[in-house]
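Study this fold:
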Amino acid sequence: MSGRSGGPEPQPAWAHEVLLAGWRVETLSEADLDEVLAIERASFSNPWSRDMFLWELQNAGVSYGYVLRAPSGAVAAFCTVWVVQDEVHINNVAVDPEHRGRGVGLSLLRFVLRLAAELGARRATLEVRRSNAAALKLYKRLGFQVAGVRRNYYSSPVEDALILWLDRLRDGAELRPGTA
């Protein structure tokens, strides 16, 4: 998917299988950063900076960023990933507090994981704070499993990260609603 240029991006034919009705995923662009940074600051005690997101935008081919737009057009969630060989690393994902608990994060991650599978990824990984029960519930629903711990990985406050892996990104079938 490419950046916005005058209108909504076309959605993959399968988008309706994973997205909420009326919602759309678009490629993250510099024009989205104010909304993304507001969600980032509301979501994390040690948020990414604008420069960190700009770096992601400037490294196309490895780094991919997406926003999930509500029917109103506002950014409701975002996700940045790296696709390296047959793996996708989920670097950052967050949902606007107003939209949490409604399946928004699940919908976005199903979409992004399916795109990554189309790019050749066969497995996915991420780190999550040990105390982030809501995120752990979401990731387990998608099939991620704890594979290890990074001691004192996070700051503000210092906390361990759980390393999660999903080893079954084949054709996206497992990412459709009702299958996770």
The chain is about 25% helix and 30% strand. Residues 23 and 73 are 8 Å apart (CA to CA). The domain at 15-175 is CATH 3.40.630.30 (Aminopeptidase).
